[in-house]
Design a protein that fits this description.
Mean pLDDT: 79
Radius of gyration: 24 Å
Largest sheet: 3 strands, antiparallel
Strand order of the largest sheet: 1-3-2
Strand content: 5-15%
Distance between the termini: 80 Å
Structural class: mainly alpha
Bound molecules: zinc ion
Order of helices and strands: EHEEH
Length: 91
């Protein structure tokens, strides 16, 4: 057993999941682990309080098509707003 990480580590996902459950139930601290991840250094499971968005896997890249849809809907909204304002000015 090598001590690559000083963090508390678990051998399996289910061990880590169980620990997470117990911590959530028993800990009154503000910052508690919310998930577990496999460590690249030691190959074991650690707990972390960081949200999943910090990891590469969680980053979702929008496809160009999706981006265009967002832009189009924004343009539409802006046009509608301008149209409404102009209409009010005419009155
Ligand atoms: Zn580790």
């Amino acid at each position: 057993m090598s001590d690559v990480c000083n963090k508390k580590s678990f051998e399996t996902d289910s061990d880590a999941a169980l620990a997470l459950k117990l911590i959530k139930r028993n800990s009154s601290r503000e910052k508690i682990p919310i998930r577990y991840y496999k460590c690249e250094k030691c190959g074991k499971i650690h707990l972390t309080a960081k949200p999943p968005s910090a990891s590469k896997e969680a980053v979702k890249v929008k496809t160009p098509k999706q981006k265009m849809q967002v832009q189009n809907s924004r343009k539409k909204t802006k046009w509608l707003k301008n149209h409404e304002i102009n209409g009010e000015d005419n009155n």
